[in-house]
Structures are given as C-alpha cells and as structure tokens.
Amino acid sequence: MDQEKQLEELAIRITEHTGVSLEDASLAIMNVIGAFGEVAKAIADAFASISKFVTENKELIHQWQANEKRKKEVRKGWILNLDTTKPSQVMMNKPKFIVRKVVY
Question: Which of the 8 DSSP states describes residue 90?
Fold first, then answer.
C-alpha cells in the first residue's frame, strides 16, 4: 500500500510539472520500473555468464597468472638505461668544474 501511495504521489508531481494526464504519468512510471527490472535481469545474466566462464576456465586462468608472475620475475633482472637522451640534448651542457689556465 505504501509503495502504491508513493507511486501515485510521484505521478501527481509529474502531472503538475509536465501537464500530462495522471494515467499517462502512471503508465510512464510503470514502464520505467519495468525497464529497470529488465536491466537488473541483464546484469544478473552477465554475472552468471562471467561466473560460468571463470569456473570452466579456472585452470587456464591459473596458468596465465603463473606466466605473468614468471614474466615479472624475469623482468626484475633487466637493467635499463632510463636516460636515453644524447649528451647534446641536456639543458646545461656546461662543464661542472671550471679549470683555471695556469701560465708558466
């Protein structure tokens, strides 16, 4: 009963703001509720299919995870030169220590 009363109040608000009839507003509300139900059902079906896929391919997923872990361990040993700029690309390419000329 409380839910029907809330739906009726919502339909009255819609009629006040838009000027459509009360029956059309009630029908629109019911259509929206039905659409939300269909969306919820589609989401539930999607989760069910994902769950089914995971259970069917559990061994493949474990193999993939182990392979990724192995690749990460191998890549830890790689030494990469992070500074790939040419010396001429450095902003301040001046000598750091100025050598004074010594005259004999």
Answer: S
Rounded distance between C-alpha atoms, residue 58 and residue 51, angstroms: 10
Residue 32 and residue 14 in contact, taking contact as beta carbons nearer than 8 Å: no
Cβ–Cβ under 8 Å, residues 51 and 57: no
CB 7 within 8 A of CB 29: yes
For residue 11, how many other CB atoms are within 10 A of its CB?
21
Domain boundaries, the chain: 2-78
Amino acid at position 76, single letter: K
For residue 89, how many other CB atoms are within 10 A of its CB? Answer: 9
- Tens of pLDDT, residue by residue over 30-84, are 999 899 999 999 999 999 999 999 899 999 999 999 999 999 999 998 888 777 7
Does residue 15 contact residue 22 with C-beta atoms inside 8 Å?
yes
